[in-house]
């Protein structure tokens, strides 16, 4: 299972590719950041993010794209940019027929550190250990993108079982009734 | 001057094309709504919006695209979808080299009704009058998209003069000093 994790942002969009299955050692295939100039027009920044994500999809051909789910934050200006960058990442994946999964920051932190309230340093340290890297990936956006990909690989079996159960239940339920 | 106005939304994305110049009667060239199913996956909805916007750009070849500037609202879920839909509209325009302008809801209301706090009915009534339509465009998202395009046509001369003044000032300022 090969997953591209995307930590969306207009100025720095973290990207990381991880391959593996739950219960086995994972492999990092690539990590980086798609950057756009702060003083560029918003439309041009979105085009630059699209081009960056497309390059990562072309090079690594992931089977899944995991994007951080954006919530309202203190800084409304930032959250708008994050939502817009995440839209571009989701669009690029969906256009190719690649399934997109959204994970919340606390789901990602809980998956890699055991605590949904872990700080950046703790996430960086666990990503380094789990992928057997020599140093934590920098900037933090790059480490977060890898953590998203790891989270997706580990959560996917449970999610798939859940989806299969729902699908089975829906298929079995008599028509015209709600389950 | 031909402008495509976009009132962004995931479920209903209003689109309207207006042609004209400030101080002369305006002409509506088209109006409609790009819809996506509420129960579809977010990535697929964004792809559907992209396809819809692309069709409007292909058909009408606008010189400008005016998009509503998204702010934080009461409903955080809605504002995220609005930000994501607006990102797709801006991306489609910028990819073609079409300048994108953002106008706030109160700028648009003030432009067409004289009051930044006008209600939907008032905006619809003025759009109908200004474009000499037989009835207000429905749904409200379609009327709002036309109002955005009208707002852009009327505000553009002032904005262009401002940008030219800034550019002139910047060009004249000696290097190494801040103006």
What does this structure look like?
- 2 copies of one chain form a homodimer.
- By secondary structure, the first copy, chain A, is of the alpha/beta class.
- Chain A has a single domain (2-172), classed as Ribonuclease H-like superfamily/Ribonuclease H (Nucleotidyltransferase, domain 5).
- Chain A is built from 5 helices and 5 strands; from the N terminus they run βββαβαβααα.
- The first copy, chain A, has a 5-stranded mixed sheet with strand order 3-2-1-4-5.
- In chain A, strand 1 and strand 2 (12-19) form a beta hairpin.
- Chain A is globular.
- Mean pLDDT of chain A is 89; it is low at 174-179.
- The interface between A and B is medium-sized, with 26 and 26 residues.
- Chains A, B: Keywords: Cytoplasm, DNA damage, DNA recombination, DNA repair, DNA-binding, Endonuclease, Hydrolase, Magnesium, Metal-binding, Nuclease.
- Chains A, B: Pfam families: RuvC.
- Chains A, B: Mg(2+) 1 binds at residues 7, 141.
- Chains A, B: Its cofactor is Mg(2+).
- Chains A, B: GO terms for molecular function: crossover junction DNA endonuclease activity; DNA binding; magnesium ion binding.
